[in-house]
Amino acid sequence: MIRTPYRLTRRGLLGHGLAAGGLAALPATRALAQTSDEGGRLRARLYADIQNLDPAFWTSASDALVMECIYAFAMQFETGTDQFTAQPVAFSRIEQVDDTHIEFELHEGIMYSGDYGEMTAEDVKFSYERIADPEVDSPYAEDWAQLDHVEVTGKYSGTIVLKAPFAPLFNSTLPATSGIILPQAAIEAAGGQFTTEPPVYSGPYRIRSWEPRTRVVLERNPDFTLFEVEFDEIELIPIEDPKTAELGFEAGDIDHAQTSISSMARYAETPPARGSFQRFTGLNYYWLGMNEGNADLADQNIRRAIQHGISREAVVEAAYLGAAEPAAGIIAPGLTGHREANLYDYDPERARQLLDEAGASGLRVSLAIQQTAEDLAAAQVIQALLADIGVMVQIDQYESGTFWSLGVESEGDQWRDLQLFLFSFTMQPDPSWATVWFTPAQVGVWNWQRFDNAEYAELHRAAASELDTEARAEMYVRMQDLMEESGDFVFLTFEPVGILTADGVEDAMRPDGTPILPRFTRS
Amino acid sequence: MTLHTDPAAAPSRRTKPRGALARLVADPLGALGLTLIALTVLGAALAGLSPHSPTGLSPLDRFSGPTAEFWLGTDNLGRDLFTRVLYGARVALALSIGATALALVFGLVTGVAAGFGPRWADNILLLILDAMKSVPTVMLALVLVTFTGPSLWAVVLVVVLVNGPAYARMARTQTLAIRNADYIEAERSLGAGGARIVFAHVLPNILGPILILAAMDIPIVVGIEAGLSFLGLGVRPPAPSWGTILYDGFSYIRDSAWMVIAGGIPIVITALGFTFLGEALRDTFDPKLAKR
Asked: What ipTM did this prediction achieve?
């Protein structure tokens, strides 16, 4: 038999390519899912990589999630309940003596890593006064806005002394990152602040390794005794795209993940095969902002016209596929100051009239969004609605790093060109956490609307010290009225939270769907 | 009569041989390529006949599968996918042919200038062309979009900067081969100027191979447009582009697979069409390579 040598020709290559393409189109055998419980390791999604684990300078919810694992918090929110109730953790006792004095006592024997010894009341004094110190310039100084000083009365005891009553103290200061206690010597050894390499650990876990943009591996801290932890390791995987996280969960590669909002209806109807789905009422608020510092939007009538030209129901329905409801403000249902109704309606006719009055026919504006499916859908609906009133919208998509610098003055002059933008902020369970970002002091920092209202600023300051819940609620509602009246805001929704948890894992979730990973157990 | 691939050996201006189209159509690969391209062109031309708007929103109709009304189903905003695919063909063809033409002009001008000009100009142009060629496409796109913002023109610029140097390199090589040929020397001795030599002898002889190369690059340009639009760096929403349809499809693939199918199929058809045509053109005009 004569064998001719095989020669690959260009035509042959094309033919083989077509054949291979055809084979690829055939149904593939599904890869077997990995098991989730090997070696006592919990694998969870981080929505972004860690950037800063310093309680005075952290930047994202991912940072906060990791900090909750590696530091002993003063207090922590209860899980598995629909009420925000904080319980002492590092504190063994905390008692409000009067409006401005709060006594505390630490558990004995809370050990720091390295040579930093035992946690004492001096550390409490250092940590809280550090965040409040104007020289430190912490973006979270408002969490301790009314702190006068911390008085140390014993090795483990002391008194938090306030300049005025401070309502957020037990809602968003002590049970959150601003309640973390670190030793002065460690911070000083790190040069006054640090980013992703904590100089000290005191929580249930410590960082074993960090591969940027790949994974953070936490291992159990043997010195931690405040509560029992179940998993030996926690592997946190940064997955920015929630749809990818969903696929990872369904493939068995992660045990816990937040879903995209647009997938929530599907998961509610058909839960994943190897786990469960839960829906939480989130606190994060989502809105359309308008930069009144931009020349084209300086006229309030133009901004009011845009407000009237946008049907919030249509935008929210398109972006969240029925999983969310339109919002009338920035303070979520269930929190003091939640606002039930807007001051205006969707009214295209009124919008056209306002544009005529402003002499802004043929207005063209840009709408800055991040590259997410929800933003893109919402933006296209806004574009169509505003086209109906004669405003042409150009949608500009940005990757997250660029987007988050668009309105920041310290990043350059690009804030002047910023016009409309879709924004979402994370939130702690106190209304002051929502309103703080829109004070005059935040103009060019997080207040990209450049909304500058003296009454608002005064109400924000006064509401933080108001202990009467009803009076406080009225103040926050009035503040949201002022925001809306400025024309700078179109409040869209509070983002619901969808959570996937693998079979065999018992999660521990705050009422807003935030996981407290060290409290996770096996079921 | 054939087109000489060695331009130095070409005694005079050559045009494509008679019966080339017939040979192209007779080649099964060429016929298939032409058919696929014709399908795409026809779709783009007839897009306006669709009863649906490519950008009109109808959220109540979202994620519909193929029906008598929506032949390829609808997307997450209830837009008819078939209509968007047809209008997307206009974007893809206009951009790929337009940008390739611009890249071709850039490449020819630069390549002939480098090949026909003084040595120092050749060295400088070569350095610039090699530097341009060394920048990865996506990185180049990111840098350009940072300065210009995402747009169709940004994609055109990316294509010119990515493909132009390749055409310039080829044009330079061919020009260098021709400029020292005997018949060019003869022309010179008869008093012919540089412009006459370039337009009467150089360009006609180097154009054929470069056009074939350009035809084979068109699917790459379609891919670049789709890729950049997929990354949000190309066509701005709500303009229909195959890349944006694919991106939307990727985001909602768990809700409906039709968006990915609708965005993917025309890219495959167009890419195969131009690749087949390019192969057949090469076989037709370059007998040395034919059937290899």
From this structure: 0.79
